[in-house]
Specification:
The protein is mainly α and about 300 residues long. The protein has 14 helices and no strands. α9 packs antiparallel against α12 and α9 packs antiparallel against α14. It starts with a helix and ends with a helix.
């Protein structure tokens, strides 16, 4: 027992807890913010590097550690090989890592300006609220998916633009970040199809549990598509017809893929995440270049 209490995590278990594979989405969104700022990333490379570090290996990784700590009892039943229930992250080290990473995230955010600090603090608050009692937003698909969508898309995008501009980003940047965050709510719903039975047993009201699998799939598709129609409209209104047509093409591809998704949601959700979601995030980048072009960026 004493050995377990005094042991420290191995580097491999520590890295597994922080789940590097999940860092891509917020890092991509951060780079969309950098692009949409109209500034040269090479001229501000140290800040861009710190921002990427903040979006992925710090804030996102913090959310993973928090989630695994507060899910450790459920994971001991469903996924006992995870770092905490398997004992590879011993004692209370999971909680310690989550707390240390929260502080590190805030320290890095402080060096990047007040708006970045505000965004990071808000994102970290959502990360803790998502997993930790008493709020534990993940128990409800409406609130939990909203929190994750904002943290993975909107806040990193805002942060990237704020890092580059040194202040509050352009209103158009904020609007696009919000719209793509809204659409990401549907993407988060796709991740819930794989755990319907477990969620039912544990009383988790994910949207597939709350609405039923078929209705949740249709709703997710609607939520993913409608914000992109709004993006197309806004880009046209702002005079970016070429970029708007590019978004239309990417959205058309998603709509075709959605037909198969709706026909077999649980079987096709992973496939759609690898195909339709890729088209979705490419649209984010296209819209970022549209705003960049209007600012005369290089």
């Amino acid at each position: 027992m004493q050995k377990t209490l005094t042991a420290t995590p191995s580097p491999s278990a520590f890295l597994e807890l922080l789940k590097p594979i999940t860092w891509f989405a917020p890092m991509w969104a951060f780079m969309c913010g950098v692009v949409s700022s109209g500034q040269s990333p090479w001229a501000h490379f140290p800040f861009v590097f710190l921002g990427i570090l903040l979006a992925g290996p710090l804030v996102c990784a913090t959310s993973q550690a928090v989630n695994d700590w507060y899910d450790r009892h459920v994971d001991a039943i469903n996924e006992p090989n995870r770092p905490i229930p398997s004992g590879r992250i011993p004692g209370r080290w999971g909680l310690y890592i989550a707390c240390i990473w929260t502080v590190l995230s805030l320290l890095v955010a402080t060096s990047l300006g007040s708006w970045v600090l505000i965004a990071a603090a808000f994102g970290l608050a959502l990360a803790w609220a998502y997993s930790a009692p008493p709020l534990r937003l993940k128990q409800n698909g409406w609130w939990g998916n909203s929190a994750v969508a904002i943290c993975y898309e909107g806040l990193p995008w805002f942060t990237g633009a704020a890092v580059m501009s040194g202040g509050l980003p352009d209103t158009r940047v904020i609007v696009l970040a919000l719209l793509y965050s809204l659409g990401a709510h549907g993407i988060m719903t796709l991740n819930d199809f794989k755990s319907v039975e477990g969620d039912q047993k544990m009383g988790v009201l994910s949207l597939p549990v709350h609405l039923g699998v078929d209705r949740a799939a249709k709703f997710a598709c609607l939520v993913m598509a409608l914000p992109q129609f709004a993006v197309v409209y806004l880009l046209c209104a702002w005079g970016h017809l070429f970029y708007a047509m590019a978004i239309v093409g990417l959205l058309g591809g998603q709509l075709m893929l959605m037909v198969d998704l709706v026909a077999s949601p649980r079987a096709k959700a992973p496939w759609y995440n690898a195909t339709g979601t890729t088209l979705y995030v490419l649209g984010m980048l296209v819209s970022s270049f549209a705003i960049r072009a209007s600012m005369g960026g290089p």
